[in-house]
Amino acid sequence: MQKLTIWTNVAYPTEAMERLRAGIGQHALIFATQREQTVLAKSGKDENLPLADVVLGQPDVSQLMESQKIQWVQLPSAGYTAYDRNDLRRSFRSRGVLMSNSSSVYAEPCAQHLLAQMLGQARRMFDAATSQLTNHQWPYRAIREKSVLLNGQNVLLLGFGAIGRRVVELLKPFEVNIIALRRTPTGNEGVVCRPISELHQHLPWADHVANILPLSDETTKIIGAAELAKMKSSAIFYNIGRGQTVDQDALLSALRGGQIAAASLDVTDPEPLPPEHPLWTTPNCVITPHTAGGHSTEFIRVVAHFVNNLRRFEKGEALADQII
User: Is 271 tagged catalytic?
Assistant: First the structure.
């Protein structure tokens, strides 16, 4: 295998960087002139990128298409909205350039986060936390009477990729009923899976609506007033996908008007959510700061995923989480 030059714009912590240097072996590692503390940050045009054969990071899209040297781009994130472009796909396919993301790194933490949100809502954890942090009352009867079991409830998954598959596995012991919606069902999902075009048909059925959709022209504000109106008044909405897939004004209205019971949001529009935004003070809305994919070994697992794919790339094998 030829010696490759690998570019990254991520400032990995010490242990992850040591594993990255050990894992690339004979290959050279170069850095963007400005390195980022998060895998989500996108780089502007960088003078070192044209030197690279392989990218581990989030480079400027236009510069990426101009480069004649790059052979493979490994995105250290699960999301790839900025790179989900027909012109980029055409450019890469015409030159045989590969692109992969890190969906398998983030499937587990995102799925566990969603399960935690669902259990927290079902067992009224957020009500108890509110009492602890504010009035120090003992709402024994109210919380017990409102607490529910997940067993037998209906869960509608919007999106069915790596995260959705893991969610289904984690929910299995709770004996819930699941329908997943995706752009093009394959028939081998292992659960009932229908096209996303049937969204309105399935919303009235669901006790839990979990949005895991990526952002695209088709999914922008896919959840709005009309969709929220289709949901049960007892239903709970979850979003660990992208904030722009939801009409937040419509969601706020639905929550305050009792049109739906509650929402748990890990993503918002914009991010960070401004301190004065009314969602912060909506009692039946729980917000986490885009942390669903976060975990203490995140950078180490991103590096391990890249090194595994590097071995595949060296052998000419198919990449894990390959998207182009």
Answer: yes
